[in-house]
Amino acid sequence: MQSWIIKLISIFIMFIMIFITGNIPLRLKSYKENTRLISILSAFTGGLFLSIGIFYLIPESQVFYLDFYQQQIEIFMKYYPWSFFIIVTTFSLLLFLDKVLTIVASQQNNKGQKYTYNGNFENDVNQEQQNFENKMTNNNGQINQQQNNQNTNKNIVETTQQQEVFSQKQNMDQNIEQKIIQEIKKQDSQKNFKPYLLQIAFGITAILEGLAIGLEKDWVKCLILAAAVLCHKCTEILTFANSLKKANINLKVATIMVIIQAIINIIGIGIGWGVSNQGYLEMCIYTSITSGAFIYVATLEILVDEFSNKGSKILKFLFFIIAIVIVSVLWFFEEEVMPNY
Question: Model-level pTM?
């Protein structure tokens, strides 16, 4: 079987799967997110990505670089592990884009809020109520003192103090109401901004994952890469679609965003396919970039998030190990059973 057949099938299946899976949460009112199943599948995908990056992509990038280096020995080129440098650079760049830049953008989006929420909102309200109760106690003490000292002005003082207490209570209620409104607006703003940040973050990794599929000439490796990416896309698009639904994005706009996400993956495969016949140096660079992307997605995007949650850790770890075993078996299958490929 030729690798181009795998690539064509991957393009078709990936687009259909992303489009259908992404529209299920958007259009089915009875849809309920099965977080446990998604978490287990994500852990399995993390194992696939980590083992593929270590078993296949990193060694392949080093082979391309050594082939290029052998050609440069005549001009006395000094050896430096550039392939690993590119891997680390790609990892760092994705870390910056995903964990730093998007957070800064989210903070800037909410910078104009009049009320800044810096802790537990309930604590703010409770503090406001406590301050009011303290004022009430002080006022009652003042009333009692004035009643003892000024019996002739008793009615006037009581009326004045009661009016002051009533006014303070009104002000406190207005402050609490204003803070509640501001907090709701802030949460809505963050919720509405999150899908667009996810679109950018997922889009970058989607291009690099597609690039890995497009670059591969060995049909067995291409099939393994395509299967791993499809598993990842299944969980990723559900997360993306759920964020669109929770943000109350217009259905038409949300559908367009899902289609864009599907197209981005295809673009990545097309780019990799188009440059797959380049020289050793170019292939070293491209493969190193995809290696860094796979390691990043496996570690900081999937495994850290999944194992920071409390539920089903043993089961998730089991599926993580199963994924590594599967890739290991496929590696031996390719090397021993199909040496001609």
Answer: 0.73
